[in-house]
Amino acid sequence: MPTALISGITGQDGSYLAELLLQKGYRVVGIVRRSSTTPYERISHFVDKVELLSADLLDQHSLLEAMAECKPDEVYNLAAQSFVQTSWNQPVLTGEFTALGVTRMLEALRRVAPEARFYQASSSEQYGKVVETPQSESTPFYPRSPYGVAKCYGHWITVNYRESYGLYAVSGILFNHESPRRGLEFVTRKVTDGAARIKVGKSRELRLGNLDARRDWGFAGDYVDAMWRMLQKDAPDDYVIGTGTTHSVRELCDIAFARLDLDYRDFVVQDPRFFRPAEVDILVADPSKAVSCLDWRPQVSFSALVEMMVESDLARHSQRP
Length: 321
Ligand code: GDP
Prior knowledge:
It is built from ten helices and 13 strands. By secondary structure, the protein is α/β, with parallel strands linked by helices. Helix 5 (146-165) links the parallel strand 5 (117-123) and strand 6. The chain has helices at residues 12-23, 60-70, 84-89, 91-112, 146-165, 187-199, 220-230, 249-259, 288-294, 302-319; strands at 3-7, 27-32, 51-54, 74-77, 117-123, 168-174, 177-178, 206-208, 214-215, 218-219, 239-241, 247-248, 268-270. 49% of the residues are buried. It folds into two domains: 3-177 and 219-241, Rossmann fold; 183-215 and 246-283 and 300-319, UDP-galactose 4-epimerase, domain 1. Strands 3-2-1-4-5-6-11 form a seven-stranded parallel sheet, sandwiched between helices. Strands 7-10 form a two-stranded parallel sheet. Strands 8-13 form a two-stranded parallel sheet. Residues 84-85, 176, 185-188, 190, 208-210, 213, 215, 249, 274, 276, 279 line the site of guanosine-5'-diphosphate (GDP).
C-alpha cells in the first residue's frame, strides 16, 4: 500500500485528492496546522480513514519530523496562502507560505525521503500579464500579484531541486478549479452561495467586483486526478491543466441565478471594494501536453460545475435556518 503525504489536506484540493487516493488504496497522511478551531469541514466525512500529523510550512523542523514519521512514497504540496486579494494585504506572509514553504518541503523530502515523488501546486496566476495566448508549459511567467510572484518562486525551486538533486519533482500549473468545497472568498463560490442566500431570503443583494473578468474554470475533482497522473510517469515533468475555454464573471452570475429562476441583474451590485489593484489578462490554458502525455481530459463542463455548486449551496441554506 503506497503512502501519500498531503499538505493542505483540509483545503478544497487536498480533500478531493485524499478521497481519490483512498479509493486507489493509498495510506493517506495529511499535514495540518495547529489552531484553536478544527477546520475539518471538508474532510469530516472521511477523517477516520486518514492520518493527520501536526506540522507547519513555516517550521522546517516540523516538516522533517512529519516526513520522517510517515515515510511517504508521494508528497503533494497543496498548502498555501491561496487567495490573490489577501496577498496584497499580507505579501510577506504569502511569500513565507506560498514561496519559502515549498523550499522547506523540498528540503525535508531531500533529507529524509529522497526517493519520494513530489508534486508542487503551481498556478495560472504565474502567467498574469500574459506573454502569449493560450498559455502552455513554455509560456514565460509574468505574475501580477504577490501571490503570483510567490507561486513563481515555488515553481522554479521545484524545477531546480529536480535538476540539481535528481528528485522526482513535478509542477502542475493549474488554472482555476472550483467545486462546492471552494472557499467562500473566491468568486465562483461567492456567487453560488450568494444566489442561494437570495433564493431562500437570507440576503437581498450580492456585491461583486469586475464582472468582465474572465477565467478558465474547471472542476477541482478532475484536476486532482491530473496531479496523481503526473506522479505516475516514468520521468518527472511539468504540465498545464485547464479546460482551454474562458467564461466571464457575468456569465457565471447568469448561470447561477438562472438555475434558481432568478435574473442576476436584479441582485448583483458592483462594488469598488472588490476590484483589484492589478488584474491578470485573460488566462486560458493550452492543456494539449496533459491530454497527450497524461491522457487527461476535464469531465465537467462550466455550466454543470456552476449548477453543481448552486445546488449544494441551496441545499445547505435550505437546511439551516
Ligand atoms: P483568482 O483567479 O485566484 O484570483 O480567483 P478569484 O475567484 O478570487 O477571482 C477571479 C476573478 O473574479 C478575478 O478577476 C476577480 O477580479 C473577479 N471578481 C469579480 N468580483 C469578485 C469578487 O467579489 N470576489 C472575488 N474573489 N473575485 C471577483
